[in-house]
Each structure stands twice: as structure tokens, then as C-alpha cells.
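SAMPLE LOG
Freezer: B-3
Tube label: C17
Construct: single chain, 249 aa
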Amino acid sequence: MARKILAAGNWKMNKTPSEAAATIEAMKATCASDTVEVLLCVPAIDIPAAIEAAKGSNIQIGAENVYFEESGAYTGEISPDMLLDAGIKYVILGHSERREYFAETNETVNKKMIKCFEKGLVPIMCCGESLEQREQGITIDWIRQQVKVGFLGLTADQAKAAVIAYEPIWAIGTGKTATSDQAEEVCKAIRDLIRELYGDAVAEEIRILYGGSVKGSNAAELFGKEDIDGGLVGGASLKPDFGDIVNFK
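STRUCTURE (predicted):
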């Protein structure tokens, strides 16, 4: 079965609700596609305005984070039910910025993965290595550990529904991009690990994205690789030019 390309934007801490609505209105035409799934993961406060603005288009709205408890004294956190009630399906988990600045670990990401599947959300679980780790030659070992712990306790049906995003930390927002061969090498290693854990059928169905300075000029080469099923895109997803990635050629 062919895996559908997913072009997912991660807006990070950008755009007010009114700016989000205006941007999405401008994107409706540029991001129209019958063959690529289009997703914009926006700040929580932007979600209602973004969903309203995206109505009548192929653009889906996702979230950038969720907590692993359903309610309680967790000031500032957002529960799965809150996202579901707002109309959210996809949520990014374990982005390197969350790990670096907000002390997220493989274990807390795993708790979030489990909770997402309990509640019916689809997680996009991020993994990636630093430049130092790449230079030390431990990239594959590092990524395997992140994915193994992140997927701990998930069933085969849950695993194949998840999305994994490989984002080398040294290529996020730096203008540096892993070569398509470097990106494919790691994405293939991730798929091979999923095959070890869950078998061929799950490995062939799960979608693995590449993230790290993806743009219209390199999207076709990256997405054309056998084990890369789309992109998790940062800065380039903040303007209508995101359509150049969606409609890569």
C-alpha cells in the first residue's frame, strides 16, 4: 500500500490568532492538493481561529504539544480532551526544542504517546541527533533509543497509525539541510527498527517524515526517497509559499 505524503507545518511560537487566520486564508489556494495531506500544527491559542479559517479547504490543523494527564493541577498544560473537543487529530510530541528547553525526555514522550492513543489523537513523534552526536558516529544508536522508548507499550495497530519525524537538530532553523541520502539513511534505519519491533506490515504502513530546513527547492528530492513520506516543516510553513512544498515537483 502506498503511503500518502504528509506535508506538516510546525509553527512553533509564531502568529497571533488573527495572524494565523489571515495566513491560512492566503494558503488555501497555494496548498490545495489531492495527493498530499496538508497539516499545520499551530500554537494552542491559535487553534480555534485556525480551524475556522481552514474550513472548506484541504488544510488540517494540529497541535504542537499535549500533556499525558487528562485533567488536574497542571498549570499551563493542555489535555487530550481539550484538543479533541477543539477538533484536533494530530499532535507533535517530543520536538527537540521541547526536549532542550522544557526538559522532556524519552520517558515523558512515551507517556504522551500512550495517552494520545488512549484518547484517539495521532502523535507525530520527533527524534533527532545533535551535531556533536553525528560527529561521534552515534546517530543511528541515538535515534533507535529515542524511538524504542517512545513506542514502548504501543500495539502494532497503534504503531502503524503513528507518525515519526526525523529532525537532525543541527539542521533545524540553521539553513543547513541533511543531504537527501543522509536523511534517507536515518529514515530507513527507523523503518528497519519498526520492522524489528512490529513486523513488515507495520513498517510498510507507518509514515516517517524528514524535518530540517525543508523548502520548495529540496522537497521533491527528499520526498522522493523510499523511506521519506513527507516533511515536518518549520519556518517555511509560516507563509503561503508552503504551497511550494505541498506541491513539490
